[in-house]
Specification:
two-stranded antiparallel sheet, 4 helices, mainly alpha, 49% helix
């Protein structure tokens, strides 16, 4: 289902336009990693996690996947970098594997009642 979804095809085209040196296999691998991150974070328990084929990719999910793919590609080659500065250009990555702002977009919000 996912490979035939027009939103999925659009994401891959956008990535190919931005990173024209990537092969289709590399784009697919990046997409699969981003999709697995979304599903794993949305459904932390494997007891209720849907199969990838049944996961509905709506507009919001497609935008998150695209943002995660950009995050993955931006971190490529500098995964362990937490801060770097040279010639007035600086890069700062969170110390985590994934940008915390992306995680915050999909993690459930809960608190203890007062």
């Amino acid at each position: 289902m996912n490979s035939q979804n027009p939103k999925v095809a659009q994401i891959k085209v956008q990535i190919k336009q931005k990173y024209d040196y990537l092969s289709l296999e590399e784009i697919n691998a990046c997409y699969n990693l981003a999709l697995s991150d979304l599903v794993r974070l949305t459904y932390p328990s494997s007891n209720n996690r849907p199969s990838i084929d049944k996961f509905d990719i709506d507009f919001y999910a497609s935008q998150w996947i695209y943002a995660r793919m950009l995050d993955i590609l931006d971190r490529a080659g500098g995964t362990s970098v937490t801060a770097y500065k040279e010639n007035g250009i600086s890069f700062t990555y969170a110390a985590s594997y994934i940008d915390p702002s992306l995680v915050a977009q999909i993690m459930p919000k809960a608190s203890v009642p007062k």
